[in-house]
Amino acid sequence: MEQMDLVNIKDKILNSKSLQKISPISQYTAEAIPPDIPFLVRLVGRDGNGNVIHRLLNTVVEPSTTEIIAYASTKNSTLAPGGSTDVRFTVFNIGKPAAFRIKATDEKDFVQMVTPDRVNLQVNDSADGYITLAAPKHAAFGTTSTVTLTVHTNTAGQTFNFMVFDVIVAPQDLDEDPPTCTVVETKGDCSTVGPTMDCKKFNYTVTASFMDIGYGLYDIQAKYPTQTDIGRQNVDHFQVGLTNQSVKGVFHSTCCHPKFQLIAIDVVGNVGRCVIEINNISTSPVDESNLSTYILIACIGLAIVGLLILVVICIICRKRIRNKVIFIR
User: Fold this and answer.
1) pTM for the whole thing?
2) pLDDT at 116 over 90
3) Of the candidates 130, 117, 118, which has an alpha carbon nearest to the alpha carbon of residue 77?
4) I want to staple 127 with a disulfide (CB 3.0 to 4.6 A). Which of 119, 136, 187, 269 is the partner?
């Protein structure tokens, strides 16, 4: 194939473009501005003997006389789980007066109705409408569905046009806060394990608490530098989407992996982490928010001890002075 011709119904060439081969399996491409009247596509090439051959596609292509415009907000339409929204559109008729049917579909069945679904338009007339979309309550965040809106007539020489846009299930309110991860207790000591020792004989345990105050927890996991022989984890069962309630997890491993991360993920993809490094003997973490209280108590204790020492010294001094006075008499 060498050439693509756009011809009218009388076989007159309206536009002609050379074909470009784009693959070793004889695929060709060409770009041409379509005429504003009905036309057919004809391919021109040569056979093995060099003879010119023509192939005419027997479908008449007629430029659409309708136009659909979607408002910019539809480019990023969002739905909350269990929520609904209306997406607006406008249909323009730049052809002959006609009755149009309007239909919308999507693969996730979010489309509930199209209003209106039929319109009568005169030349250069337009009609506004909207598509009602709704997501089920269990729809997961991030679920995307492509909506196709079509407009056509049922008359001979059918006029047809369409548009597509995506709708995504997302939180109604922005949630950028990751879940919290708090180490409750660590047991084990990997600091004494040397390079010549069998690290598998030394174990440790980490207990942690996880919570999300946004749209809820989705997953809790431990991430080690290597994915082999990483031990085991016991996380309390929780319902996906659990919010404002803590979930406990106990993680066991050997000193072959003394450093790892505890990861909590919420349903909108925010990630909270705890970095764990087992280098010390069994300890329980100190709450830094109470550190000033501990210092104050220690200071008070030292003051009391100092006061007691001062009282004892005074008593001893008074006794010595009394003994001295009696001796003089």
Assistant:
1) 0.45
2) yes
3) 130
4) 119
Residue in this structure with the two tokens 């579909």, named with its chain if needed: 105
- φ, ψ of residue 135 to 5 degrees: the values are -110, 140
Q: How many CB atoms lie within 10 A of CB 326?
A: 7
**Gap between the Cα atoms of 106 and 113, Å rounded:** 11
Cβ contact 81:135 at 8 Å: yes
Q: Reduced to 3 DSSP states, what percent helix, strand and coil does the chain have, rounded to the nearest 5?
A: 15, 45, 40
Return the pLDDT at 317: 65
Distances 280 to 186, 258, 261, 277 between C-alpha atoms, Å: 9, 10, 17, 9
Instruction: Name the residue among 80, 185, 96 with its Cα closest to residue 133.
Output: 80
* pLDDT tens digits, one per residue of 65-104: 666 665 535 444 788 888 888 888 888 887 778 888 999 9
Report yes or no: 5 and 16 within 8 Å, Cβ to Cβ. yes
- Please give the order of strands across the beta sheet that includes 111-115: 66-70, 84-93, 125-134, 111-115
Residue 114 burial class via C-beta count within 10 angstroms: exposed 0-12, middle 13-18, buried 19 and up: buried
